[in-house]
Amino acid sequence: MRRTVFNEDHEAFRETIRAFIEAEVVPVHDEWFAAGQAPRDFYYKLGELGIFGIRVPEEYGGAGIDSHKYEAVMYEETARAGVSFGGSGVHVLLGLPYIQMLATDEQKKRYLPKFVTGEEMWALAMTEPGTGSDVAGMKTTAKLSEDGTHYVLNGAKTFITGGVHADRVIVCARTSAPTAEDRRFGISLFAVDTKSKGYSVGRKLDKLGLKVSDTAELAFVDVQVPVEDLLGEENKGFHYLGQNLPSERWGIAFGAYAQAKAAVRFAKQYVQDRTVFGKPVAAFQNTKFELAACQAEVDAAEAVADRALEALDAGELTPAEAASAKLFCTEVAHRVIDKCLQLHGGYGYMNEYPIARLYADNRVNRIYGGTSEVMKSIIAKSMGL
C-alpha cells in the first residue's frame, strides 16, 4: 500500500534529518544515555536546523508551515536510528500549542524568537505528587499581589519532561478555589521564567526508560510571576489543557507506531545475521510467522497514525479519535516490541542493543498523556455508553 501522507518536501526533510542524526547524534548517544540527558547545547543545534520553528509564523523567525507532518518524520527517523532528541520533544509538542493559542501579540514577540532558536526551551508542568491524572486536584497556587503587578506562586510539580534544561515552564496553578458546580474551575496557566527567585529544580528522576530525556521535580516558593506572563484568561486553564490534549495524544500515538516499525527493522536485521544450529534465525518458520504478524500490526498502526495526522492538520481531530489512535498504536507497539525483543534472545535484554532501550522507552506510552484506561473511558463516552 502506497502512503499518501507525505510529499517530496517531507521526504527531502527526512534525508536532512537522517544525515543530521548520523553525524550529530549516533556517535554521542551512548554518552547521553549514560549521563541521563542530552547536553543543553544540542538544542541550539536543533534550533539552527530549523526544527523548532517549522510551525512558528515567519514574523517570529519560523517557517510558518501549519502542519505536524515534519514532526511525524522526526518521530520515524529518531525511532529508526534508535536515538532520542532528549527533552526537546515537549518543547514543540506541548509548549508551542499554548503559545499559539493563548499568547497575546506582545507575548509572542517576547517568547517565539527565542523559542525558535532554542535559546529558551519550554516545558509543561501539570502533574503534581499525589494527583496524577486528576488535574483538578492540584494544590499549587498563584495568588495575585495586592498591587496587581504579579502573582505569587507556591507548590510542587513532578514528572516534568524537559524540566532540567527548561528556561520557561508553563505552570498550571490554582488562582481560585473550585466551585460546587465545577471542581475544574480556578486553574490558570503561567509562562514561568525558571531563573526566578524561589524556583528550583529538585531531583532529576531516575526512570525505567527514556533515559536521554531529562525528567524532574519542580518546586515554587513565593515565586513572583509578572501578570504579563499569564497565558490566556484566569481560571480557564483546565479548558485550555483539554483543547491541546488531542494533539499531544496524536504525538504519543505516532511516536509509538514509529517505535513499533523500528522494532521490526531491528529484529529483521538481527535474525538475518544471527546463526543458531547452523542456520540463520530468520530461516525458522516461527521467526517468519512472528515477524509477519508484527508487520501486519505495524501496517495497521501506520494507517491509524496517518489518518489521525491528516485529521490533526485539518483541525478535525476529535478527543475521542485522538484517544482511539493513542490506545490502538500504543497497545500495538507494546505487543510488537515485546515479540521483537524475544527474537533477539538474551541479547535483547542488553542495553547495548537498541531493542532493549526501545522496550523500556515504549512502556510509558500507555501511561502518560492519559492512561490506556482513561482512553477507553473517553472512547466509551463518545459511543454514548
From TrEMBL:
Pfam family of the protein (one): Acyl-CoA_dh_N
Pathway: Amino-acid degradation; L-valine degradation
Keywords, alphabetical: Branched-chain amino acid catabolism, FAD, Flavoprotein, Oxidoreductase
GO BP terms: branched-chain amino acid catabolic process
Organism of this sequence: Streptomyces inhibens
Name recorded for this polypeptide: Acyl-CoA dehydrogenase
Domain Acyl-CoA dehydrogenase/oxidase C-terminal: 235-383
InterPro entries: Acyl-CoA_DH_CS, Acyl-CoA_Oxase/DH_mid-dom, Acyl-CoA_Oxase/DH_mid-dom_sf, AcylCo_DH-like_C, AcylCo_DH/oxidase_C, AcylCoA_DH/ox_N, AcylCoA_DH/ox_N_sf, AcylCoA_DH/oxidase_NM_dom_sf
Classification lineage: Bacteria, Bacillati, Actinomycetota, Actinomycetes, Kitasatosporales
Oxidoreductase recorded as keyword: yes
Molecular function as annotated in GO: acyl-CoA dehydrogenase activity; flavin adenine dinucleotide binding
Cofactor: FAD
Family: Belongs to the acyl-CoA dehydrogenase family.
Domain Acyl-CoA dehydrogenase/oxidase N-terminal: from-to ranges: 7-119
Residue ranges of domain Acyl-CoA oxidase/dehydrogenase middle in the record: 123-223
